[in-house]
Write a structure and sequence with these properties.
This protein is α+β, with helices and mostly antiparallel strands. It has 4 helices and 6 strands. A 6-stranded antiparallel sheet has the order 1-2-3-4-5-6. The radius of gyration is 20 Å and the shape is globular.
């Protein structure tokens, strides 16, 4: 019996010591505080749109009223309550509307205290979630550290955004 307890303690110690090597160490929020952007197509402003030729995708960036109020880099950071939605859709070759099936909604929201869970990859007070059009997750909050890792590269001076309405102006 004592031998089994000793072996169990040894195993637990090895597992505990090995955890930093087994996990990727990227922290992220555990709950969805971003929220699916209901009615974004009707209620948000189109900030910019562009085509990814190689992927044959149409990307449209929408912003709620607060996000749309930022029209120049001198107005950064975005106000609290800002929500940006990057919609990615199949690109259709014909027809008046060249937007096909929606592939994903990449959503970021800025609120006081947001982003703390990202640790060293904190991007100000933004949090991220990626949804499918049916509201299911592409990237759930628990996995959104990959979003923060990318956006941190955009830098504080651009409020961790690559484009939004500002597009190339923000570079």
């Amino acid at each position: 019996m004592i031998h089994r307890i000793g072996v169990l303690l040894l195993v637990l110690s090895v597992v505990r010591l090995g955890q930093p090597f087994l996990s990727v160490g990227n922290s992220a929020p555990t709950t969805d505080r971003v929220g699916f952007p209901e009615g974004y197509e009707q209620n948000y402003t189109v900030l910019r749109s562009f085509v990814k030729e190689k992927q044959q995708q149409l990307v449209t960036v929408y912003g709620n009223r607060l996000a749309a109020s930022v029209t120049d880099t001198r107005q950064l950071p975005y106000p609290f309550g800002s929500i940006l939605v990057m919609e990615t859709a199949d690109l259709l070759k014909s027809g008046k509307d060249n937007r096909g099936k929606i592939l994903g909604l990449h959503v970021m929201r800025r609120e006081p205290g947001f982003g703390e869970a990202y640790g060293k990859n904190r991007t100000g007070e933004w949090e991220y979630v990626e949804y499918r059009a049916d509201k299911d997750y592409i990237t759930a909050p628990q996995s959104s550290s990959v979003c923060a890792e990318c956006h941190v590269k955009a830098g504080r001076e651009r409020d961790y955004l690559y484009g939004g309405r500002l597009g190339e102006q923000s570079r």
